[in-house]
Amino acid sequence: MRDLKAVGKKFMHVLYPRKSNALLRDWDLWGPLILCVTLALMLQKSSVDGEKDGGPQFAEVFVVVWFGAVTITLNSKLLGGNISFFQSLCVLGYCILPLTVAMLICRLVLLAGQGPINFMIRLFVVAVMFAWSVIASTAFLADSQPPNRKALAVYPVFLFYFVISWMILTFTP
Amino acid sequence: MGMQELQPGQEFGDGATLLAANPDATTINIEDTGETSKHQPRPRGSSGREEDEELLGNNDSDETELLAGQKKSSPFWTFEYYQTFFDVDTHQVFDRIKGSLLPVPGKNFVRLYVRSNPDLYGPFWICATLVFAIAISGNLSNFLIHLGEKTYHYVPEFQKVSIAATIIYAYAWLVPLALWGFLMWRNSKVMNIVSYSFLEIVCVYGYSLFIYIPTAVLWIIPQRVVRWVLVMIALGISGSVLAMTFWPAVREDNRRVALATIVTIVLLHVLLSVGCLAYFFDAPEMDHLPTTTATPNQTVVAAKSS
């Protein structure tokens, strides 16, 4: 119960990013795990044809998310940042929350059939959530870098969430 | 051996005048070389960008060698060892990218921008961006080309990302390894003035791939002519960066060996770009081209031959 409350509190911090240390101080990886599994499950095709029609498999989403987060963390530490390994993983994982919400909305919108208007709505939602994720994570991560390397540490985060947004946007049931 | 007493008001800096006054006086010079070489990169980094353009290696080779000797002292199993490969600031990375986009004849990329501080940040993240740029642009381009066809079902083709990653990273690491081995072997036979370390070669190759990122995005345009023009431009720029970097390293060698090396470097680059274009981007169909005068003739010819 206590862990669940901690996870819920961190979700709130991601949705309304303020200058607080709650995400960094007591890191946990439950939230990122729940979000990653949810995202990977939702990215699976609803059809049971059994053929691989080109979308990312469950394992591929998992690998992209976790290896991406580890790579960004290593990059940040190698550039001289003073954030710990698991703190960084925690922040990056929790900031996938807006994109998971976007995935949920996209699946609901796709129930109404496909078409250009449908696509425009999904594009708009994914773009807004992508911006939200990037802003939320840089709010937490940028302070840990020396000032002349902030952009170098933030760009991989941008690329990471861009790739996840692309996977969400190109999802076709 | 008379030591001059310092008059009140005189400073130590008047050593030259003191010596001129009394040439027999002994002078003691204490130079803190460690201090000066440590302070070198900071002012250079913050304000001396214009100076970077002028200094071409001879003046600061001693300091950079000292610095290089100081930097790589940690054993390879510590984290600090790998941190030395990421010792770049934002503006340094931008300068190196600019240098790869604007090859100036006579200015060597390694000498000018890398300067005994090869970094792995640029090559790694440029390759990562290029992998996703090619995969995503290829997917988008195929979608746009086949838009409207009734038999076409859009697939995200996510598996192509892993193929692209294998190709790009293999190119960015194995070709420099082979080139470095080859240059080392030639160095043992012919004494070359310029020799590059393995990381510097990786650095040049990594930054030279940057031009392909906008090229890959522009390859979405489904016109064959546009795509080939883009290939030519990208090859021209990155090929010349590579050629101008490696020409000084093989210049003293046998003429034929030198030319063959440069030609091989450029050929491998051509192979990479043309291969990526062919594999990830479907060819635009004939009837998608704006030259509508061609199609009636073709249908007439097809009708006649059938």
Automatic annotation (TrEMBL), chain A:
Keyword Repressor: no
Location of this chain's protein in the cell: Golgi apparatus membrane; Membrane
Residue ranges annotated for the Yip1 domain, each copy included: 14-167
Record's bilayer topology term: Multi-pass membrane protein
A single GO cellular-component term on record: Golgi membrane
GO annotation, biological process: endoplasmic reticulum to Golgi vesicle-mediated transport
Assigned keywords, A-Z: Golgi apparatus, Membrane, Transmembrane, Transmembrane helix
TM stretches of this protein: 27-46, 58-79, 91-113, 119-141, 153-172
InterPro entries: Yip1/4-like, Yip1_dom
Pfam family, one: Yip1
Family recorded in the similarity comment: Belongs to the YIP1 family.
Full protein name: Protein YIPF
Automatic annotation (TrEMBL), chain B:
Family: Belongs to the YIP1 family.
Transmembrane segments: 120-141, 161-185, 197-222, 228-250, 257-281
Domain of life: Eukaryota
Keywords: Golgi apparatus, Membrane, Transmembrane, Transmembrane helix
InterPro entries per record: Yip1_dom, Yip5/YIPF1/YIPF2
GO CC annotation terms, alphabetical: Golgi membrane; late endosome membrane
Biased composition (Acidic residues): 50-64
Predominant subcellular localization, coarse grouping: Golgi
Annotated membrane topology: Multi-pass membrane protein
KW DNA repair (keyword) present: no
Lineage per the UniProt record: Eukaryota, Metazoa, Chordata, Craniata, Vertebrata
Domain Yip1: 101-273
Entry's localization field: Golgi apparatus membrane; Golgi apparatus, cis-Golgi network membrane; Golgi apparatus, trans-Golgi network membrane; Late endosome membrane
One GO biological process term: vesicle-mediated transport
Region (Disordered): 1-64
Pfam families found in the cross-reference section: Yip1
Coiled coil stretches, renumbered: none
Entry GO MF terms: small GTPase binding
Name this polypeptide is given: Protein YIPF
Species for this entry: Phodopus roborovskii (Roborovski's desert hamster)
